[in-house]
Amino acid sequence: MEELIHQINTAWEDRSLLSNNETKETIRQVINLLDQGKIRVAEPTSEGWKVNDWVKKAVIMYFPIQQMSTIEMGIFEFHDKIPLKEIMPLREFV
């Protein structure tokens, strides 16, 4: 985890690294960990809520590394960089 934190903080300070495939993969790895619920942007502690800045930075840097795509739903057309997430069946939350 320390290596992920280091890579995210380094890319945050030097945005030219966003063109590097290794940096892109690191950012996507953080997003996958978020999706899996293994890390959080903010979490409760005994002293109150703690913001994990490195995770927040990864989320922000995720947008510029994604390609714009068109999503069509019926008569509506959306242009976005982030595909819609699939909804898990309710039984998986129980």
Write the layout of secondary structure elements.
Elements: H1 2-13, H2 21-35, E1 42-45, E2 48-51, H3 53-65, E3 69-73, E4 76-80
Antiparallel strand pairs: 1-2, 3-4
Question: What this model shows, in words?
Answer:
The strands form 2 sheets. Strands 1-2 form a two-stranded antiparallel ribbon. A two-stranded antiparallel sheet has the order 3-4. The radius of gyration is 16 Å and the shape is globular. It has a domain at 2-66: Tetrahydrodipicolinate-N-succinyltransferase, Chain A, domain 1 (Orthogonal Bundle), CATH 1.10.166.10. The chain has helices at 2-13, 21-35, 53-65, and strands at residues 42-45, 48-51, 69-73, 76-80. The longest helix is centred in the N-terminal third of the chain and has 15 residues, at 21-35. With 94 residues, the protein is of the alpha+beta class. The model has no long low-confidence stretch (mean pLDDT 88). The two termini are 28 Å apart.
